[in-house]
Write a structure and sequence with these properties.
Radius of gyration: 16 Å
Number of helices: 4
CATH architecture: 3-Layer(aba) Sandwich
Helix content: 40-55%
Number of strands: 4
Strand order of the largest sheet: 3-2-1-4
Strand content: 5-15%
Number of domains: 1
């Protein structure tokens, strides 16, 4: 397998419905990875999957709000349930409030904090657990 090849790998990309997330998901698929596309916007996420399929890649869409930990747990479970494991995670999802800081209130900040910081933490928590489980399973199989 070359350095650029991701053949056989499973990649989860959050916020993959548009912009950088979409490009990242498409690039991993182009390199041969099976990609789990996540976004809060179902139409945008499905469009990313459509584009990957049209280019000959493998992808599935899972709608989830990364600011809600239960949805993150379900997202990672869906990735593992679909492809058997998780090798790479790109926690790209984020949000912003289109208001100047001088005009913002604590609710504005809470929305940004929930997705951009707490969401990344929740994603890493569940992704790492899935990766550890796969590594432990693989390690025990190799020792037999």
């Amino acid at each position: 397998m070359s350095v650029d090849s991701m053949t056989g790998k499973v990649v989860l990309v959050t916020g993959a419905g548009q912009a950088c997330g979409r490009v990242i998901a498409e690039d991993f698929a182009h390199r041969g990875a099976s990609v789990v596309v996540n976004d809060i916007d179902g139409h945008a996420g499905e469009e990313t999957v459509r584009r990957i399929h049209a280019a000959g890649g493998v992808a599935t869409f899972v709608k989830a709000d990364v600011s809600v930990e239960a949805e993150v747990a379900a997202l990672v479970e869906a990735a593992v349930g679909t492809y058997g494991r998780l090798d790479v995670a790109v926690n790209n999802a984020g949000t912003e409030v289109p208001v100047a800081i001088a005009d913002s209130d604590s609710a504005d900040f809470a929305t940004v904090f929930a997705a951009n910081l707490e969401g990344a933490r929740a994603c890493m928590k569940h992704e790492i657990r899935a990766m550890r489980a796969w590594a432990a399973e693989r390690s025990s199989t190799c020792r037999r």
